[in-house]
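Memo to structure team: turn this sequence into C-alpha cells by end of day. - J.P.
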Amino acid sequence: MYFPLRLLRAASRPATTSTCLPTIAPVHRGPPACLLRPNTVSRPAGAAFMSTVLKRPPEYLHARNMPLNKAMRKKKGGNLRRKGRGDNSAGRGNKGWGKYHRGGVGRAYEGGQTPITKSIPKLGDRDHAKRNKQKKLTVVALDTIQYWIDTGRIDPTRMITLEGLINSKCLTKVREQGYILMARGGEHFHAKIDIEATDAEPDAIKLVEANGGTLKTVYHDPAVIQSWLQPDRWAIMPENFGPTDLEDIARYTDPSRRGYLSWVAEGVEKHEIVKRVLEMTQPKPSKSQ
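Reply from structure team:
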C-alpha cells in the first residue's frame, strides 16, 4: 500500500498539533547550540522521523585531524635528492656507468671483453651450411601433390615441372633454389605421375616409383625461377644453365638421387665428372665475341 510522505510526517507529530501547520520548536534554555556536540543539538519535534534517516558525522575533517599520506613521508635514512643530474648536491659521483645505472652490472658481464660464452667453441651438431641450404628450398609434400590432382589443378598425365606448378598457381612463392619433394602424407598418395623436382627425399622417390611413376631431380637457376614468378619484369628471359657448385654436381650426377645428369657419370672417372658437367652446362661464347 502506498502512503504519501506528508502523511508519514504528520503521523510522527504530536496529536495536539494541527496537520496543516508545522510544529514550533521549544525554546532552548541551556548553553548555545554551537558548544554542544553535533549529535546532541536539540531538534524540532517534527524532525524526529528524519533523524533516523539522516545523521551528522561525529567529527568533521579539518587541518588538525587530517592524516598525512604515507607515500609523502620521508623514509628513515632516505635521501630525496635527484640522483645523477650533474648538480653538486645530486650525488653518484661524476661521470660513467654508475651515474645512470644503479645496482651494479650483470653476473655475466666481464668488463667489455669477449665473454666466455662466446670465446669457447660450441659442441654438438651445428651444420649451418646444411640448414641454410634447406632454407633455400620450398617444401612440397606428396599429400599436397595428391590434393592438387584431386582438385583438378594438375594434370597427372603430363610431366609435372616447377614451371607448370607456378603457372597453375599451385606455388605462388618459391625460394631461391626451387623446391624439395617430401614423403610426408605418403599414405594418401596413390597417383601415377612423372615429376621433376629440385631435390627429393629417398622415401618420396620410392613412393612415386611404387605407383608406377618417375621422378627426376633437375637444377633450377635462381634467375629462371624469378622469371617464372614475375615474367613482366624480364625483357629477355634467362636461360637455365647447369650447376656449378660441387655439391649440386654431385647431387645431379648421382643415379640413386635420380639426377638428370646421371648419364654423364657412366663410365667416367670421378675427377673428370666435374669437368664434363661444366663443359656441357656453361654458356658458350658467341662467334661475334
